[in-house]
Design a protein that fits this description.
Elements: H1 3-12, H2 20-31, E1 36-39, H3 46-56, E2 61-65, H4 72-76, E3 78-81, E4 88-91, E5 99-103, H5 110-122, E6 124-127, E7 130-133, E8 139-144, H6 157-160, E9 165-167, H7 174-184, H8 199-210
Parallel strand pairs: 1-8, 1-9, 2-5, 5-8
Antiparallel strand pairs: 3-4, 6-7
Helix pairs in contact: 1-2
Length: about 220
C-alpha cells in the first residue's frame, strides 16, 4: 500500500472502527475521481466516515441535508444582480467544494437531484450561460437509508450511473462496539482528526491512478 494512502487510512480509522474495507473503497473512489453512494441503516457511521475523510484531507468540505424543500439553487448556486455594477454575479452553492456530503439524497425532490447530474459528470456548474469549474479533487459522497420509503424519492438510473460505487458499512462487531465506546469516553476523539494530506498530494496520487492500465487476455 502506498505510504500516503496508509497514512490517510490510519487517520480515518482513528474515528471509524473496524471498517477498513469501506475506508479503502472511498479512498479508491477519490483517487479515481469518482463518487460514492453509502446505503445503510441509520447509526452505522456513514456521515462520520465522510466527515473523517474530508477532515483528513486539507480541502473544502460542505454538507447539505437533503429534504423535499431543498432547491437546486441551494446546491449549484444562483445569479443575482449586483447593485453597484448592475451585472449578474454568481453566488456559490454548496457544490463549490472538494468534498460534498449529500445526506439522505433520496429525500431530495427529483428537481434537486437533477441539479447534481452535471456537477457529478462534468465537474462544472452551468448557470445563465456561464460555466463555473469545480475544484480538483471534487467528490460527492451521498448517503441514503435503504429501509425507509416514506418521504423519499427513488434515485433514477441516470443519477445512479454517476456513482462509481455503492457501499454498505454494516453494523460493527461486538468487540468493535466496545472499542468505539472506549474511544468515545476519551472526550471528543472524533473531533481530533487533523489533515494528513494536502490537495496537491491527492492530485499527485490521482495522476498515478490515471496511469494504471488493465489488460484483457482472451
Amino acid at each position: 500500500m502506498n505510504q500516503k494512502v496508509k497514512l490517510l487510512t490510519d487517520n480515518i480509522e482513528k474515528v471509524i472502527v473496524g471498517k477498513t474495507d469501506s475506508v479503502l473503497k472511498i479512498i479508491t473512489a477519490m483517487l479515481c475521481g469518482g463518487h460514492v453512494l453509502i446505503e445503510d441503516v441509520p447509526g452505522v457511521g456513514k456521515t462520520q466516515l465522510v466527515s473523517a475523510l474530508a477532515r483528513s484531507v486539507d480541502g473544502k468540505y460542505n454538507r447539505i441535508q437533503l429534504t423535499p424543500d431543498v432547491m437546486p439553487s441551494d446546491i449549484v448556486g444562483f445569479s443575482m444582480i449586483d447593485q453597484k455594477t448592475h451585472e449578474l454575479e454568481y453566488k456559490e452553492g454548496v457544490a463549490m467544494c472538494n468534498f460534498l456530503l449529500a445526506d439522505e439524497i433520496n429525500r431530495a425532490s427529483p428537481k434537486s437531484q437533477s441539479s447534481l447530474l452535471e456537477v457529478m459528470e462534468e465537474h462544472q456548474i452551468s448557470i445563465d450561460g456561464k460555466t463555473h469549474e469545480l475544484p480538483l479533487p471534487f467528490m460527492v459522497l451521498a448517503t441514503q437509508n435503504p429501509v425507509e420509503t416514506y418521504g423519499t424519492y427513488h434515485l433514477p438510473e441516470a443519477q445512479m450511473d454517476r456513482f462509481l460505487m455503492k457501499i454498505s458499512m454494516g453494523y460493527p462487531s461486538y468487540d468493535d462496539e466496545l472499542d468505539i465506546m472506549s474511544r468515545a469516553e476519551r472526550s471528543g476523539f472524533a473531533k481530533n482528526i487533523q489533515p494528513v494530506m494536502t490537495l496537491e498530494n491527492v492530485r499527485e496520487l490521482m495522476g498515478y491512478a490515471e496511469n494504471v492500465t488493465a489488460e484483457l487476455s482472451v
